[in-house]
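Dissemination and training. As part of the outreach component of the grant, students in the summer workshop were shown how a complex can be specified as a set of sequence lines and then modelled as a single object. The example used during the hands-on session is reproduced here so that future cohorts can follow it. Participants entered these lines:
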Amino acid sequence: MYLEIDNLSKRWTNSGETPQVLQNISLKIKENEFVCIVGPSGCGKTTLLKILSGIEKADSGSVIFNQKETDTTCQCRNMVFQEPPLYPWKTVAENVELGLIFNKVPAKERQATVKEKIVLCELSGYENYYPNQLSGGMKQKTQLARVLALNPDIVLLDEPFAAMDEILRHSFDIYLQHLWEEEKKTYIMVTHSLEEALLLADRILIMKPNPGEIHLEECIDLPRPRDLFSKEIVELRKKLRNELSKFY
Amino acid sequence: MFKKQYLVNNAAILLIFAVWFGVAFLVHTLKGVEFPSPISTLKELAENLAGKDIYDYSIGQHTYTSLLRWLAAYVLAIITGIGTGFLLGLYPRVYRLVMPLIYTLQLIPGLAWIPISLLLFGLGNASTMFMIFMLGYTPIVLTTAAGIKDTPKELIQSAHLMGASQKDLFIHVLFPSSLLQIINGMRIALANSWRVLIAAEMIVGNGIGLGYIIIQSRWTLDYTSAFVSIFIIVLIGLTAEKYIFNTIERRIRHKYGYTHH
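and obtained this result:
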């Protein structure tokens, strides 16, 4: 198995209470799988992503990647945030290049990779723009290019398009699907939108809060691009919606 | 809009001269004392520039000496201030240990440094420069440390995710992120240290400098020379503030995409 999450648990220890954020999460994810995690606020889905990325540590349990246990950040995994953490003093191209500089990639190779990812992520012509000159969508594309430039095996996405309106988000979902099909990688995406999950995922996980657990798994074996108004999707949507509404 | 601002700026200068005129006129008519007006000051300045010495030195020598004293101590304050600020911003333990000391130093008024510097360095250049240094050092330390600590957590986190070393993090994230605050500290330090330079020269200067002119004019009743000195002091301060710091700050703000005010 490619990525194995075994009995992961986590509590917050800040205030007097210590709520169980994650309880005994076990999960197996295949190479190149597109997994979407949905669930109400407070179900620990973002925490799960952060543990997978290595920036947050679990209290117990383990993350096993390619038969090796890992609990720190590594270039095999990277994360896409809802609010793109771009460096305002660097241009689009410089932002995309930065991770490669950190990883001591030779300059020539860096230039080639940056060029390639700029084209892939539809940023051509914007190389020398500063983040403040970009729309929210272009910023998100820059973040994606920056993450993909490091060629991670696993891309973790934390509600990347949540700030967009429905129509725009749909076009970004198609864009993301295109990126995933171009460069096959494992994508694990947290989202609030069932629609988004139904459009993209090989598998949808519904999480429930208090304590954070996986409530239900649904594999979607439909070809892409998917029609959100097809009979199968509409029916699936009804079912998952019913399941989700139990937690509100 | 740009033109309007230009007009307002010029009007401000006119206002300063108008108030100066008014005060000089009132003091003269009400108290019968000769108060140097803008005209007599500028006339005196013109004569000084044409070669008339003030207290054995030309106006250029006075100004040059003051500037040199100030610059040496100010540059030293910038270098050590930024260095200390980085240490404080990067290491929380150092911050907790050293910050109270910096705050305490900052609370000491400029003139209060006179006895301390005299005790430490005696009369002379070293005392003057010590005072300039102390007044410039603390604001730069404070703003530099704050700049490092204010770096958005997300920017640090994503650098870690991309595999940044501590050195990478400093060069590519922490330093550029605190740059505006550092410049702001340099600006405060400039004003502080330039002001204290004059005070320091009045007490511990050695016969030359813009501050020396002011204190000397008190004994010789040559107040016009004092006004010439004040005029030059303000002019230099304004130039540094408006043309050097504003330009640098505007460029950085523009590049980082922060709004102007």
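Chain A has a mean pLDDT of 93. Students were then asked to discuss how this feature might be tested experimentally.
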